[in-house]
Amino acid sequence: MQIFLWILLSLPVIVLAVIGARYLVRGTPVTHVRPARYHDDPSGLAAEHLEHTLELLAQTRLDPGHAIELFRCGDELYPRLWDDLRAARQSITLQLYYCKPGRMADELLVILAERARAGVRVLFLQDAFGSGSLPNEYNERLKQAGVSVCSFRPVRWYDLEKAYNRSHIRVVTVDARVAYTGGFGLDDKWWGDGLTKGQWRDTSVRFEGQAVAQLQAVFAAGWAEGTGDLLTGELFFPPRLDGSGRPGAEAGVVHAAPTIGSTIGERYLAVTIASARERLWITNAYFVPPDDFRDMLSHAATRGVDVRILTAGDMSDVLTTTYAGRASYESLLESGVRIFEYVPTTHHAKTVVSDGAFSSIGTMNFDNRSMAFNDETLLLVHDAEVARRMEEAFLTDLEHSREIVLAEFRRRPWKQRILERGAATISRLW
User: What is the DSSP secondary-structure string of 136-168?
Assistant: First the structure.
């Protein structure tokens, strides 16, 4: 009787534990991209409808008239970013996932404090998980200067689900007219040329145009969650810009956020892969494709698309990700996908360029965590000139990369295979 009673009392705990475990390892539901009408289109999606489809399924709007600058390393990014911040006259908003003490953090503190004392409204949202190493005195100095600082989703025992749903977002806006996003963080490892060990190679983007308001809206959502204060008004959201007739690229911000079921992140990637006709070049630091997305990439290659993947390889800062990603290499290589690993230093970029027309630059990794659990941002661009620059940067990176050759890869040691399989098995827990 006591055993039966113990089992009966334990049953709810067991059920809750199973439900919790399934939640923590859940994937995303999309397995195929199947249009209803275009049966003769080998890509599965008519090209002329791609932009409209992405706007609807990724819940963004691509407006014309954007000025876009690309940065490949901290040597290019930080001086431009510091100049923009120093020039702020009304507002600065920042939301950063990764912040660490050092030269870059010190320079930012001086700039933000000076601007706040000059009357600029400065709001700084720091992800508690990724920015926890910033000392209290750092933020106290910011607050004393008039900067509003908020720790986003602090890790508490009664709020553990928030810690699992990480905010991987990067947002910087200046006077609601200039914005930045991409893979960068606030740490000295992002400073440098992207070719020297310890100086990370990353891609970030500066843009002007209507998409700035979209990125500001992403920040406003996070600020409301963290502080309870919903930002409105012309200081943060000036009247809508009319980009029609202005030179520049069509662009929009994709805000991917976790949900129960299909996410914006997975829909964006699935449609982009399915729509590629000629070239699909993906750079991603943490390339651990879920099985369905591995199959989508393979299918694209077998229908004749030049599919290339560039990832961090042995220079990754998270080697378990490298091993988990390599578990999918063999089947991808067999289908004709080409895979490259960057050699000189850590490659941290998250970009896609497709058919010399569509590009994205942002924070979203090619793994289940980014698609199912993280808040992510990326700038989606429809413009041939931006795509040309993206492809040029990709080809330059390949000059510093090692191509994975199928025959050679199949001869890797059995210990390597065990590491790959083990890392792939636990990959959904990161």
Answer: HHHHHHHHHTT-EEEEES---GGGHHHHHS-B-
Q: Are residues 198 and 274 in the same domain?
A: no
Q: Which of left, alpha, beta for 164 (phi over 0: left; psi -120 to 50: alpha)?
A: alpha
What pLDDT is recorded for position 19?
45
Strand partners, 150: 125
Verify that 286 and 398 share a domain, yes or no.
Answer: yes
Q: Annotate 75-136 with DSSP letters as a single string.
A: HHHHHHHHHHHHT-SSEEEEEES-B-SSHHHHHHHHHHHHHHHTT-EEEEEEETTTSTTS-H
98 located within any domain: yes
Q: What percent of the chain has pLDDT over 90?
A: 75
Domain span holding position 352 = 41-59+249-429
Question: Which residues, at least 6 apart from 86, have a Cβ–Cβ distance to it below 8 Å?
Answer: 111, 114, 115
Query: How many Å apart are CA 361 and CA 380, to the nearest integer?
Result: 7
Q: Dihedral of the CA atoms 382, 384, 386, 392 (nearest 10)?
A: 140
Looking at the fold, whether 371 and 406 belong to one and the same domain comes out as: yes
pLDDT at 408 over 60: yes
pLDDT digits (tens, 9 = 90+) for 129-155: 889 899 999 999 999 999 999 999 887
Q: In this structure, what token pair is assigned to residue 201? A: 């190679």
Mean pLDDT, the chain, rounded, equals: 90
- Residue 49: CATH number of its domain: 3.30.870.10
52 in the same domain as 138: no
